[in-house]
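re: that chain from earlier
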Amino acid sequence: MNKMRLLAVPALAISAVALAGSPAVAADGSYSSTLGQLNGTTGTGTVTLDVVGDQATINLQVSGLAETFQGAPYPHVQHIHGGATGTCPTPANDANGDGIVSVTESAPVYGGILATVTTSGPTSPAEALNLQLGGQGGNYAIQRTFTVDAATLAELEAGRAVFNVHGLDPATTPSTPEAFNAPSDLDPSLPLGATSTALCGTLVKTQMGAMPSGGADTGATVESSSSQAGMIALGGGLVLAAAAGGTYAVRRSQAKA
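^ sequence. v structure.
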């Protein structure tokens, strides 16, 4: 059968908030955000997280991200981050000036990964780059209930939880093809652009099931776009062919079950 290779994430990228000995947190409620654009993204997204006890029901709606043709859809992974300032990065966080705000450059403001929002199955930080369980294509929705730990509940209650969707479009990112295809700071077998943040928003507490009026203040902005072309190798498991029009071909690697 066809399989995508699952990728390990360095411990630095998935460190959660240490809350040992902290009292229990009553985080029941609804947390929502209208996601802001980063790294040249032209897509949009909204997310609502309804929390009761240690159970969180998510409603994520994403559209306009990088698409694919002639193969499998572009995989987009998404996470809840926390343990920092509870805000989203801006182009000013691009410390090395390569045109892409990487996860490492973003960590001081949105923190480490607390939970991976997968389409099914496990949701721990260990699934951070599980491409099989990411959102697929440029338009998708995730609606499911999963268990959240004490660290995630505490960051939600404190207003420091940030939601991210990863996976850039090389046709719109304000970087060079060389920068986009450089080794990822999360896994060197992946291109930097494939693991960097596309959409970001702080999860703001609202009335149960309601989106915040006007959206959350994400701190993210829309940058100018540029057309890029090239081949992107995703850990040997995927190949994204970026055309001038922003279309992609994604091929799964062949492996026996």
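Residues 150-158 form the longest helix (9 residues).
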